């Protein structure tokens, strides 16, 4: 296990370096720079040149890149060109909102998706199964921005049950989490169903049923635990999808999270902020996958990383 | 105004709050329950900073509430009126302005405003280390002399005609020198001014809550209310999506929000907006112009004046306004909006005339090809326009495209995100731009046409010694009538050479809840004055 962990952490470092190089190159290819961001239509050529020097933009690209990586390793992601505030501070001030949204979304996706998957598998080839899988397919297919607008209109505007948008207590997270979670729930339902169907055909399940065990116990204790192994790996990928989906959902529901921050940073060509957000997203996704891998050993004691 | 300040709000909100308390019982809901007389305004995005010396997008909604300027602009007449300065005098042929300050002004930190604050504020703005975007709007401002506690003289190296107009802008708000010194770098996070509202809570990316400054007693004379603001505070919420803003104001989640003209028209027709409805509409003319900019360098097809003139003759502005903008705009033939100083309705440029367009091209050696397009040397007369990827810009571009097609000119449209578009124009790799500018003084054209801006904001890469001379003369001519004549001459020259083809000035439309009273639309600065606002029944 320790050797595996070291290997994985090394791979995390390589992935992060790759991500940093990728985002640096991409940000250099996009038009506009910090000087345009700061001055907009104002600023004399002399003022612009002075700011360029102050920000180190007059140095060569490799120098700028290695300075960026060196600072990032020390936890300094630079200063936002737009606001003049440290990038780390900007991201940390928005991260709680995104984490709350992601948690609520995952919770909905797991509860709804896994339950629907189990029911569909147990009731295979019944109307219930077809209904569940059709709904799951819809969940995966409906774009989250459209669903978000519909939820706002129905539950916020027409029924007035929930806030249309904005941030505050937990009620503000219900509609965004439903909008973002529908796709994840649909995907999980389909994977859980397939995994359960594979498992419940195995001999040990037949044996358990032959012994006269309670069928609910057989499904939940014997079958589900094994079926969850592939489903868990999907959760890691779903989490990556959530980070992307949060960009649109947070904009529609006016949630001040990292997703919206990334849109604002991109729209204003705030390169340090874009780099910071991308690195943070990469770090979260890599860590989420690492946690999922380690979690395998908990749900399946046969798995050993030696 | 028969104002009954701070009347209680409607029952729907009380019901909503009760429900919120029952449902959640959390502190956040309780705090919003207390804020019953707070004006809630939507803005599409958060300004980069609340410090006017850091941001290039200061707004009247926020910065103009926190800061007070030496001089204000009367929303009804456009005249300069006293604010922090009781009076002023232009000295030395326009190279100095003496401001006699009020002695009863106190910043939000409780310190008395003196001439030293004026000096520290303007020197901070002009400090190269500060890199304040507003510095380039200050002309050759070279320093401030403190004559006594309440008299300051602002100096310029050369006469600077837009000086007084700029002094009314939120960028030129006077800041507390004591706070600048004591807060250091922290000042930019929580600037201290002398405006009617002070900064309360800031939730990055979400909202800024402004609190009424109770000691405020120096409102400009055009306000009925000369004391502290009538509302308890202003909450500015950052909501990027138009549809979300609309839903929020319809469900009483906002009091004032920008709304696309299309939606305002639709809702007015359906009775959701207007007399007796929950919402009222407000509009003001944008202090700027949407234009077709034609690149005049780098061997682009638009570098040839005959081509530019032919394009100018081929554009029907009336059709653009009617078909793309629902009539909620005015066609513009000069280079300024009626809300910008320098506007002259007599400036007409090249009129819509397809025959004249064809004649100009034929004279330049173009002939009609079999596909209907004008051609020269076997090549179609064709160019690509870059425009913003917003629905309005794209609709306008499509109509211009159709009009030019009728004139035998092919125009391709390339949509771009605004920062990418503006950041890509320095190399002159574009034929044309369909974008806009906004400012309240005609001197702004220096940014777009002066030769010394070729590397930055002169996006059409235009250079003409006569235009440079007129731009410089316009900036330094203090006499108003003489200056106006300079800008008439400048516009005539620019319209003749046609690096820009002005198209229209849109109306900016807003929706407000009907219980928001006392809202003053400021047509001269483009925006609203909130000092007289209170909540009450419709008159």
Task: Characterise this structure.
The complex is a heterodimer of chains A (306) and B (539). By secondary structure, chain A is mostly helical. Chain A contains twelve helices and no strands. Chain A has helices at 2-29, 34-39, 45-54, 61-73, 87-122, 127-141, 144-158, 171-200, 203-210, 215-252, 258-267, 271-299. The longest helix of chain A is centred in the last third of the chain and has 38 residues, at 215-252. The relative contact order of chain A is 0.14. In chain B, the strands form seven sheets. In chain B, strands 11, 12, 13, 14, 18, 19, 20 and 21 form an eight-stranded mixed beta sheet that branches. Chain B has a four-stranded mixed beta sheet with strand order 1-10-9-8, with no helix packed on it. In chain B, 28% of the residues lie in helices and 24% in strands. The radius of gyration of chain B is 25 Å and the shape is globular. Chains A and B meet through α2, α3, α5, α7 and α11 of A and α1, α2, α7 and α13 of B.
Assign a percent range to the helix content of chain A: over 70%
Q: Supply the number of helical segments of chain B.
A: 16
The radius of gyration of chain A is 24 Å
Q: Give me the count of strands of chain B.
A: 25
Amino-to-carboxy terminus distance of chain A:
5 Å
**Oligomeric state of the chains?**
heterodimer
Chain pair sharing the greatest interface: A-B, 56 and 56 residues
Name the CATH superfamily assignment of one domain in chain A. Answer: MetI-like
Quote the average pLDDT of chain B: 87
**Helix-strand pattern of chain A:** HHHHHHHHHHHH
Strand content of chain A: under 5%
Q: What would you report as the Rg of chain B, rounded to the nearest angstrom?
A: 25 Å
Largest sheet of chain A, described in full? none
Unreliable stretches of chain B (pLDDT < 50, length at least 5) are 1-35
Proportion in helices of chain B: 25-40%
SS strand fraction of chain B: 15-25%
- Average predicted confidence as pLDDT of chain A: 85
Q: What class, by secondary structure content of chain A?
A: mainly alpha
**Second-tier CATH architecture of one domain in chain A:** Orthogonal Bundle
Distinct helical segment count of chain A? 12
Any idea of the CATH class of one domain in chain A?
Mainly Alpha
